[in-house]
Design a protein that fits this description.
The complex is a heterodimer of chains A (198) and B (160).
Chain A lengths: L7 H12 L3 H23 L5 H15 L9 H23 L9 H12 L8 H17 L2 H12 L4 H8 L3 H23 L3
Helix pairs in contact in A: 1-2, 2-3, 2-4, 3-4, 4-8, 5-6, 7-9, 8-9
Chain B lengths: L2 H10 L7 H9 L1 H22 L9 H12 L4 H9 L1 H19 L11 H6 L38
Classes of the chains: A mainly alpha (198), B mainly alpha (160).
Amino acid sequence: MQSPQPSAAQETAWIRRAQAGDREAFGQLVERYQKRVFALVFHLLYRRDEVEDIAQEIFFKVFRTIGSYNHRASFGTWLNRVAVNHCYDYLRRIRASRVSYFGELTDEQRHQLESGTESGGASGFNAERRIVLRDLVAKLLDRAPADDRVVLALKELQDLSVEEIADTLKLKPSTVKVRLHRARKRMLEDLKSLQRGR
Amino acid sequence: MRCEAVREIIEEVGPEEMTGGVREHLLKCADCAAYARDWRLVHSGFQGLREEAVSEATIGFAARLVRRLDEVGAPSPGDAFLEQVGRRFVYVTLLVTFALLLALALPPSGPLRGPTVSELLSTEPEVAVAVNDPVFPYELSTASELAPDSAPGVKDGTQR
């Protein structure tokens, strides 16, 4: 259930109390931000069964390091940063240890992709086709390098602006724009290699 | 218009928002037209992912988490500092400092820095032979004459 929106002053008071080690105040912050963290973790990692565990690890980390929050950026941005860094580490860890199960396109995906390309990629895709494309993009994201995946998920799934992504990743907006363009380009190249069956 | 610039615009705006210049370029450039088609497919896939219901916290998530905070411990200034300046930076600095301290702490000679045993065995003592030395006014033919037992005054018991 969504808790009522606290005032800025109330949130600041919770943060200061949490910085002093007050667990109840930290609990209020968790209530306030859990939805955002769950959505972020879900979109960055796309692992439904692990979201709660990872979100819990993120909040533990936030509690341990909340003393470093200096109230310059918004607490939400700072929290996003901690969460993204945690997901980044997770992605790199699993990438090093796992085998990708998404090597090739299914026949249906190939068919949908070809017909989509032939028809000029009209924007009015039907529901069935959208599901196929959704799964295809999930597959492409899964194959993408961690850097690309994070920046694409923040932009395309979390719908953050370039400036918000820059704040979260501690980068310049111009750098974010370049990274986004490169990530999209690489994703389309990967799509082509999938179509060719590699 | 350059292809790269056109592609950047394609990624940011929908087909209906494209300017005349971009449309014109797409009519002439088959590669960019293919890029636009592929991007629209991928963009639609992203929309599908965005519409998917995200995982939500189970009831009592915050309360359970607060109960488990005791296992984590209180906010620590050390962790906060590490988080602030970046763990990797701290680790690299510590490593460099350790290497420097190690370099300074090593003695100027020893197994790591002194000459090797073979070098010691093969090197002859460096002797400065002064022919007209007022202290040793006689000529020395070989360095071996400088050995302690062959020095003047040692064999015959006299000392100059």
